Amino acid sequence: MTARLPAWVETGGVALAFIAGSVNAVGFLGFQHQAVSHLTGSSTVLSTALAQGNWLLSWHLLWILLSFVLGAVVSGLIIRDAHLRLGRRYGVALLLESALLLTAMVLLNRGSDSGHYLASAACGLQNAMASTYSGAVIRTTHVSGMFTDLGIYLGQALRGIAVEGRRVKLYLFLIGGFLAGGAVGATAYLKWSYSALWVPSALTLSLAGVYWLYRHRQLSNAS
């Protein structure tokens, strides 16, 4: 599957991983050390909060989880199917993600918890979009699965089983993009607090513009 992915998908995936890493770093530093780009940690904290009878925190975390899912729902409505096509409305999804992040920044700077939910929805939208256009090969908002796959490939290589080198390189680039984004997001948060979200918002908007230009060029060349 990876061998058939065009270069624009791989490049876009790394860019999205960078954006997600940046958003998650701001979330970790600002949202009570809770991730917003994936739901594993938040689900665990929700379970412990319920067990402890902390209903206020439980309600907050439940909305973060639901917001992520709602973001994925919106992505499904926009993109519609799981087949890779350059003409799909990825630019629209990216534009919406940028708007969600920008609005989240404004709300968080005003002290509203609604900003947490919008940031989570933006990550859910992005992860669903990436999964859709890559056939679930690329997950841009979390890296656990990619680390697992890399471990599997290493075990197979040690047994002398052939491993798809391009897939390994892709995962390494995605992980590197996520880590680099996290470093940038953390640095920006320490300097600007929640206003740091303008960085991933601007990058997502720029990525939408690049996609539209690339799509127009490719369609023009094909006609």
Structural write-up:
The chain contains eight helices and no strands. Helix 1 packs antiparallel against helix 8 and helix 4 packs antiparallel against helix 8. Helices cover 77% and strands 0% of the residues. The protein has 223 residues and is mostly helical. The radius of gyration is 18 Å and the shape is globular. The model has no long low-confidence stretch (mean pLDDT 86).
Beta-strand residue percentage: under 5%
Task: Give the helix/strand class.
Answer: mainly alpha
Oligomer: single chain
Largest sheet: none
What's the total number of strands? 0
Question: What is the tally of helical segments?
Answer: 8
How do the strands and helices of this protein lay out in sequence?
Layout: H1 7-30, H2 40-52, H3 55-79, H4 90-109, H5 114-134, H6 144-158, H7 165-192, H8 198-222
Helix pairs in contact: 1-5, 1-7, 1-8, 2-3, 3-5, 4-5, 4-8, 6-7
Short description, anyone?
By secondary structure, this protein is mostly helical. It has helices at residues 7-30, 40-52, 55-79, 90-109, 114-134, 144-158, 165-192, 198-222.
List keywords for this structure.
single chain, 223 residues, mainly alpha, 8 helices, globular
